[in-house]
Amino acid sequence: MCGIVGYIGLQQASPIILDGLRRLEYRGYDSAGICTLDEGVAQIRRAQGKLLNLENLLYDNPARGTRGVGHTRWATHGRPSEINAHPHRAGSIVLVHNGIIENYISLKGRLQDLGHQFSSETDTEIIAHLVEDHYRDSGDFEQAVRQALAEVKGAYAVAILCIDEPDKLIAAKLGSPLVVGQGKGEYFVASDIPAMLSHTREMIFLEDGEMVVFTPLAMRFSDLAGNPLTKQSKTITWSPTMAEKGGYRHFMLKEIYEQPRALADTIAGRALVEEGDVYLEDLDLDDAQLAGLEKIFIIACGTSWHAGLVGKFYLEKIARVPVEIDIASEFRYRDPIIPANSLTILVSQSGETADTLAALREAHGKGGKTLCICNVVDSSIARESDGIIYTHAGPEIGVASTKAFTTQLVALYLLALKLGRIRRSLSAADCQARLADLLELPRKLEETLELDAEIEELAREFVNARDFLYLGRGNLYPIALEGALKLKEISYIHAEGYPAGEMKHGPIALIDEDLPVVVLVPRNSTYDKVVSNMEEVCARGGQVIAVVSGDDEELLDKVAALISVPTVDEDLLPIITSVPMQLLAYYIAVLKGTDVDQPRNLAKSVTVE
Ligand code: G6P
User: Which end of the chain has the smaller Cβ count within 10 Å, N or C?
Assistant: First the structure.
């Protein structure tokens, strides 16, 4: 995720940038850095870890100058370290970046052939070198930035200084957020509004493909081709705390809304559509090992365990490997039998969950290979696993996991496709078709979020229920579990998730007119079976909230409420149907007045047994 800040004006830049970074620390805190320009000299200070470390560094060794850029990092490419901290410099160019560059491998190769030497493991450093390469040719800073950005594929928000042109600061964006703050005789640019709110309330929002050139006296907007643009400013009335949540009432809601972006970032650079293949950069297990796998274990806790349950469907169906799934606290003490040609996959948002870490060590201790699906770069689980697939969800602050969950599902799906190709259970053509669907998913998720108001209304209707039952079948059974867990976690209403076909073996006894039953019944291969299960609930007076795909008019008159999600391939239904589960739990909790982001008794990361 990362946060960037830039300043140009008459005041000392460093305290302004530090204050901005402090308000952006929610976007990541693996390292922080700053560069100011002082009489033609770049004052670069960088420190690993939280912003405080950079502040201490600046206390001992201040960076003077009235223009500068700063960065707080959420590591994606390259572990958290001082070397990988931004700003990155190449010749006269100094740059901070938020986003992911997809074609960094080919760009890096080309630049190396031209004699460029790299000192970090980041994708960002490549942009600095690319700008510098063009700058060396033309001597025109603006033109060099345009030429470089035209070659970059992926997502970025950048703020760039040029030591030889100290009266200019350039910023541009594609895919990652960037906002300009207009002060009196000074300009600010940042990833998010709170970074600038204590200086100005006049903000201009950059759109994708737009660029801004600041001098101390003016700012000019253009597109990346150089065509001038006129932009209107908006006066922001948010309080600083509201602003940190991007105007959303809670981090959880903000994170629910971040899912299209988080999914796109997790897919970025990995879907090789033309080849019908998947590239997983840190898999670190060779194809022969993966081809010979006889068994996969998936181990996790909480929501991550639910992701693992869906992963079992993906891996067995697409890669045809038998999968055993277990809760980490159970696995670690049951003396599991781990065959030599098996792989243990640990799923963890934080990478620090004590039981999952212990399970990883148990698997290693028995000679097994391990792979983690993790959101936090260089966390304990990531460091100790043989291979890693990072989810690029960005920091998740709400205790109830949302965007981390859906990105875990995407990561597991990509892994299943990759294994399917290696093990020849998936043809290149089928893989191409699946990747094309996957690339459509962020847009479909965006559409799903339009259900917001409808679900808020529904929450009003059911807020007083004492219990909830969630039913799903196949790959949607884990989503029933996850829907129930979300509701329990934040609204404190008792809820159970059940496989729809198992309902008649117990939970059916609970059904009466006071029990809302959420039934996941989109069109898929078990549709008719779930409709029958739903009828059984209706026949006993249960209040069915049906989650369907597209227009399912047939069910309309049978149920108390219908939530319609966009139509997707049935393997992607778990991802799309997660959204109404999250929104329903969220709005019920808001109506109940609970502490949505920090629900009672729960912790974001459980680092004790
Ligand atoms: C806690 C959190 C859950 C999370 C679980 C596993 O219970 O409240 O949201 O799913 O831990 O955490 P992990 O970081 O390993 O995914």
Answer: C
**Measuring CA to CA, which residue among 260, 245, 262, 244 is closest to residue 449?**
260
pLDDT band per the 50, 70, 90 thresholds, residue 241: low
pLDDT of 93 over the 70 cut: yes
Q: Do 262 and 225 reside in the same domain of the chain?
A: no
**Dist. CA 601 → ligand 1 center (Å):** 13
Structure confidence at residue 194 as a pLDDT band (50, 70, 90): confident
Q: Same domain, yes or no, for 224 and 291? A: no
List, in sequence order, every beta strand (DSSP E) within 266-420.
271-272, 277-278, 295-300, 323-327, 342-348, 369-374, 387-390
> Does residue 92 fall inside a structural domain?
yes
Phi-psi region of 593 (alpha: psi -120 to 50; beta: other; left: phi over 0): left
Cα three-residue angle 572-578-579, rounded to 5 degrees: 110
pLDDT tens for residues 477-531?
Answer: 999 999 999 999 999 999 999 999 999 899 899 999 999 999 999 999 999 999 9
- In which domain, by residue range, is 465 found? 452-592
Which atom of ligand 1 lies closest to the CA of 356? 15
Residue 609 domain-assigned? no
Assigned domain for 503 exists: yes
Q: Specify the ligand 1 atom closest to the Cα of 381.
A: 15
The helix/strand/coil state of 113 is: helix
pLDDT of residue 234: 84
> Residue 300 CA: which ligand 1 atom is closest?
15
- Write out residues with Cβ below 6 Å of ligand 1: 301-304, 348-350, 353, 356, 399, 401, 602, 604-606
- Is 173 noted as a catalytic residue in this protein? no
Residue 239: which pLDDT band, with cuts at 50, 70 and 90? low
CATH code, domain carrying 18: 3.60.20.10
Catalytic residue among 2, 301, 372, 431: 2
